[in-house]
Amino acid sequence: MMLLAKAALGLGGTLVLAGAYTFREGVIRVDVDEFRTGGSHIHMWVPAAMVPMAMHFVPKHHFREAAGQAREFLPAAHALFKGMKKLPDTDFVEIKDGDQHARIRTHDGKLQIDVEDPDGNVHLQVPLSTLDDVVDQIEESAPPA
Amino acid sequence: MSHVNRALIPKSLLSTGFALLLLPAGALAQTAAKASQPASSATSEKGERWLHVRVICTQGKRETVRVNMPLELAEKVLPAVNHDRLHNGKVRIDSSDVNDVDLRAVMDAIRTAKEGEYVTVQGDDNDVRVAKEGNHLIIHVVDKNGPKKSHVEVKMPMKVVEALLSAGKDELDLVAALHVLEAQGDTELVSVKDSENTVKVWLDSNSVAE
Description:
The structure holds 2 protein chains of 2 kinds.
Chain A: H1 2-24, E1 27-34, E2 41-47, H2 50-55, H3 60-70, H4 74-85, E3 90-97, E4 100-107, E5 110-117, E6 120-127, H5 128-141
Chain B: H1 3-36, E1 50-57, E2 64-70, H2 71-77, E3 86-87, E4 90-92, H3 103-112, E5 116-122, E6 126-133, E7 136-143, E8 151-157, H4 158-164, E9 171-173, H5 174-182, E10 187-193, E11 197-204
Antiparallel strand pairs in B: 1-2, 1-11, 3-4, 4-9, 5-6, 6-7, 7-8, 8-10, 10-11
């Protein structure tokens, strides 16, 4: 019985730490709703902490390819996400055109992209720190210039 | 097994369950509190300067575009963009872009000239006025007979113009211009009005456009 209790404590402790780490990093949220018949409805909540971890399992040659193509924009993306993290919540771009509405903003440390259209809605929320980590990892994989 | 041990197991499991419930919630609360700290006001801290662009199209579906960009962020991002004519925060201009007018020489002449009105054209079709007033370059164009009857006003601090031209020949130093712009007071830089569109570019300390 004592052994069981210890095991439960160990498992519980690990779960607590994993839970705390996962939620500290925030959540990536993707919501896609297509209004046409048979259109897709995707609602996804992914712990942001999983992304950099998952990226370690992606074969390096895929990253090298991506990094090679995005090379000239990576430093700008890096500077942008770093700068955005220091700013208050901001509506960077807002476009309204009749029934269509698009907005790019930062909110609670997340980059939020919302597109509302009569054909469908797309809402995306990604923690800025995750975006920064992803750019970091792609940059590291870039082949030498 | 003793009674003490039997009592310990449910207690341990209970406390573990409690911790499981509370810790992530605590972490979430901390993250939310931390993230919401700078979000309180529209007026930015540290006197941060914001460049705003607003385009309103009154025709058709009434399209509206709003862009709010902190100058400090633009100043950091621009040097990192190396694409096409933009390198290290400087944009290369070809003489063909400005119809072989030596833009640099013209701006240099305006910079060193005394304040006053340099160009005044009043015609049936257009009114054009270029002047230097209160250390600002003023460009004022009214299209009277065009289909849209446009009205353009540009008011650029001379220091910004100087900073723009501080790079080498055939180059405009955007980062230097942004840096100087940061020190300027609230000002409307560009205003374009015609029968279909209103465009306004201005500078202030608010992170939210009016």
